[in-house]
Amino acid sequence: MERTLVLVRHGQSEWNLKNLFTGWKNPDLTPVGIEEAKKAGQEIGKLGIKFDKAFTSGLTRAQDTCDLVLKELGQSSLSVVKDIQLNERDYGDLSGLNKAEAAQKWGEEQVMIWRRSYDTPPPGGESLKDTLARVLPYYCQNILPCVLRGEKTIVVAHGNSLRALLMVLERATPETITGIELETGVPVVYKLNADSTVAEKKVLHHA
After folding, report:
1. What are the catalytic residues?
2. How far is the C-alpha of 72 from the C-alpha of 75, rounded, in Å?
3. Which of 34, 99, 119, 132 shows the smallest number of beta carbons within 10 Å?
4. Which residues does residue 6 pair with via DSSP β-bridges, in sequence order?
C-alpha cells in the first residue's frame, strides 16, 4: 500500500512580495503566486497522483493555491477540508509591518529573536512552538490517519504551519527547525512507512 502525503506552501502573496509580516491577515496571491500554484499542480500531475483527501487553512492564499493545484489536476470536485488549525503563525503586533518598520519600532535584534527563535512570541502573537502546539495534534488526529489508510493526501498551508509537520516527518529539533525553509508553491512529496516515518521524499522544483 502506498501512503502518499504532499505538502505545498501557498504561492507568493502580495505581502510576501512586499516583505510584510502576514500571519492571519488575508492578502491575495500575486500573479507570480498564481503561476506557482498552477506549476505545482502540473508537477504533481507528472507523477500521476490523484488525491483522495485535501486539507488547507482558513486563509485565502492557501485555499486559492489549493484550488489552483486541484484544477490543474482535473480534481476541482474534490472536497477540501479547511481548518484554522493549519493557519500561518500569528505574528500579532508585527502583522502588516515590513521587516524594516518592525526593526525600527523594536530593534533589529529583538525582531530577529521573534522571527528565528523557537519559543519567543512577538507581542500579541504566537511563537513557532505555539504554532506547532495547534498544528501537530490536528495532523495526528485528522491528516495522518488518512495517509496511513492509503488515501493520497495533499496539505496546502503556510511556511510555519508546515514546519510543524516537518518536525515530525524530518525529525527536526527546536534547534534545527528554525533553519528549514519551504519555498512557495514547490510541492514536497512524502511516501510514508506503516509506522508513519518517511520512506521517501521528493521535492518537485519547477523546471
Report:
1. 10, 88
2. 8
3. 119
4. 154, 189
> What global pTM score does this model have?
0.95
Q: What angle, rounded to 10 degrees, do the helices at 128-138 and 159-169 form?
A: 70
Domains of the chain: 4-203 (3.40.50.1240)
- Output the CA torsion 67→70→72→73 (10° steps): -170
The cell numbers describing 117, all together, are 527563535
DSSP string, the chain: ---EEEEEEPPPBHHHHTTB--TT--PPBPHHHHHHHHHHHHHHHHTT---SEEEE-SSHHHHHHHHHHHHHTT-TTS-EEE-GGGSPPP-GGGTT-BHHHHHHHH-HHHHHHHHH-SS-PPTTS--HHHHHHHHHHHIIIIIHHHHHTT--EEEEE-HHHHHHHHHHHS---HHHHTT----TT--EEEEE-TTS-EEEEEE----
Backbone torsions φ then ψ of 45, nearest 5 degrees = -60, -35
